[in-house]
Design brief:
Blueprint (H helix, E strand, L loop, with lengths): L1 H6 L6 H13 L7 E6 H17 L8 E7 L7 H11 L5 H21 L1 H4 L6 H6 L7 E5 L8 H13 L4 E5 L8 H4 L1 H17 L4
Helix pairs in contact: 2-3, 4-5
């Protein structure tokens, strides 16, 4: 599972990220503006490797990225939020297996991502810390909520401030009372308008 592999520092989403970029060439749209819409920390994990590939592989360097929308992300090493997210994924799993996996995940996360992180970050930096300083400079839109029980609003705000300090054009919208990845469900018209306006603004501007 991605939750475990990424916690252990196994870059399990690296290959899927590259394959996703290769699809742009398969459909002959590599020369058109691309907008990433990233949901929750699972999407952030994949996005982190997409950014790495865009800036390290010659075959991807000409892809024109217009911007990125983050929905309910990113979050730091939030153990409580991670457990809630994993519990949601395992909702239909056998009860004993579910709690065993939750305990295993919590133990691993505490040891590798909290207690030993000052050392393990040199081997596998957290996705949040990696995004704080990624070299991309295209516009970013952050959609989050104070009521999100998985991703803390303060962590999204910290990311917004850090990216702005690097000169990135950033917009952030707090939906205040909508749940995790439920902003569009709670405010469909407002959410759609925010995304379409952001997309239009990005396409008019520089692709990178």
């Amino acid at each position: 599972m991605i939750f475990f592999s990424e916690t252990f520092g196994i870059r399990s989403l690296l290959t899927p990220a590259r394959r996703l970029l290769e699809l742009l060439f398969d459909y002959s749209i590599e020369n058109r503006p691309v907008l990433f819409h990233v949901f929750s920390n699972g999407g952030v994990m994949l996005y982190r490797y997409i950014i790495e590939a865009l800036h390290t592989h010659k075959s991807f360097k000409n892809i024109k990225v217009a911007g990125t929308i983050f929905d309910s992300a990113p979050g730091r090493r939030n153990l409580r939020g991670g457990l809630r997210a994993l519990a949601t994924v395992l909702v239909s799993t056998n009860v004993l297996l579910k709690y065993f996996l939750l305990l295993a995940f919590a133990t691993t996360a505490v040891v590798l991502r909290i207690l030993l992180y000052p050392l393990t970050r040199f081997i596998h930096e957290s996705h949040y810390d990696a995004l704080l300083k990624v070299p991309s400079r295209w516009p970013e839109l952050y959609l989050y909520s104070q009521a999100d029980a998985i991703i803390k609003a303060s962590e999204v705000k910290h990311m917004v401030d850090a990216r702005q300090q690097l000169g990135v054009s950033v917009k952030a919208v707090d939906f205040l009372d909508s749940a995790h990845v439920s902003h569009m469900r709670a405010y469909p018209t407002y959410y759609s308008n925010l995304c379409t306006t952001f997309l239009s603004d990005c396409v008019r501007g520089s692709p990178r």
